[in-house]
Amino acid sequence: MRILFCASESPRAPLNGSRLLSWHLCSQLARNHEVTVVALRHPGQDGPPPEGVQLHEIPTAPPWWGRAWGRRLAALALREPVEARRLTAPFLSFLPQLAGRFDVAHVMLGTLAGVASALDVPAVIVPMDAWHLNVEAEASAAAGWVERGWRRAQVHATRRFQASAYRPFARVILVADEDAREVRALDPSLTTETISIGVDTASFAPDDRARSGILFTGVLDTPANEQAAVRLAERIMPLVRSSMPEATLTLVGRSPGPRIRALDATVIADVPDIRPYLWSAGVYACPMESGTGMKYKLLEAMAAGAPAVATPLACQGLTVRDGVELRIVDDDAAFAAALVAALRAPGGLGDAARQYVSARHDWAAVAQAYVAVYRDVADTRN
Question: What CATH number does the domain containing 114 carry?
C-alpha cells in the first residue's frame, strides 16, 4: 500500500509518547509498504528518521510569549483548542502538492483533524486517547485563577472540537477501550477501533545487573505524572519506610519542575536512555490517579523485566492480572505494602511481565492491525 502518514511531531529523537509510536509504527510499515511521512519538526529533534520512509518535515517552534497569548485569545473567541489551528495550517499548505499519490492516509494526533480537508484519499485519525480528559487534568492542576479559567475554557473547546472534527475520517483509532467509549460519547456517529501500543521488547531485554530501590519514570512536568510522583513520594514512601527504612525512591524523566525537585527522592532529568534505570529497579511504581490512554512507561518497565506495582487506572488497555504479571492496587497503604513485598521477594513478577509484553505488544502485530484497518478503509473508495 501507499500510505501517507501525517504527524504533529516528527518521528525523530528524543522519542516519547506519539513520536515513539510514530517511529516504531512507520519502521514496521516501511518493511512491506511505501510510507511517506509529513510531520512537524520541533526544536531539539535531531535523531535519525525511521529507516525506509520518505520524510517531509515542516520546521516549527512554540510561539513567543506575546503571540502565544494572542493565540489564546483567538481560541477563546473561536471556542476551539488553541493548538489545532496553528499545527494544522502548515499541512494545509503542504499536502496539495502530494495529491494523487496514496491509497490511504494516517493522521496523528487529534489536533491535526483539520487536515482532512486537504486529503484526497480515505483516512484514519489516531488521537490515541480521549483528549478532553487530559485537558481536564491540566485544568485541575493549574495554578492561579487566570490559568485555571483558561484551562477550563479549553476543556469545553476540546469537547466541542471532538464532537465534530473527527467525522471526515473513516476510522478513529484509540489505544484503550475506555478512551474509545469516551470519544464515542461525544460523537456517537464515529466508527472507532482499539489498537494497542507496541514495545521493542528485544531492546529492553534485561541483563544480569542487581536490582534495588523503587523507580518511577515519565515526562515529569505533565499533570498526571507530577500528581503520581507527588503521591508516591509524599503519601506512599513514608508508609514503605515505616517497615523498610532503607528503601529509596528514584524519579527519572524529562522536564522535572520545582515541585518534583523538592520531593524526598533522587531526581534524574532528561536521560538519553531510560533502560539502565529500568534494568536496575527493584520495583517499578506506577500510582497513576489521572490520565488517559495506555501507559507506555509501564509497558517499558514490564518489557525490561522489572517487578511492577500499578493502580487500576495505570493498567487500562492492558489484559494483565493482579499477582501474575504485576500487582494491581489502589489505596496508598495497599500500594506501599505491595512495593515492600516486591522488594523483599520479587518472585516471578518480572519474568511474567516481560512474557506478557512480548506476547501482546509486539510492534509487528501492532503494524498488522493498522494495515488491516487501512485496507478496510481503502476498499471503501473502490
Answer: 3.40.50.2000
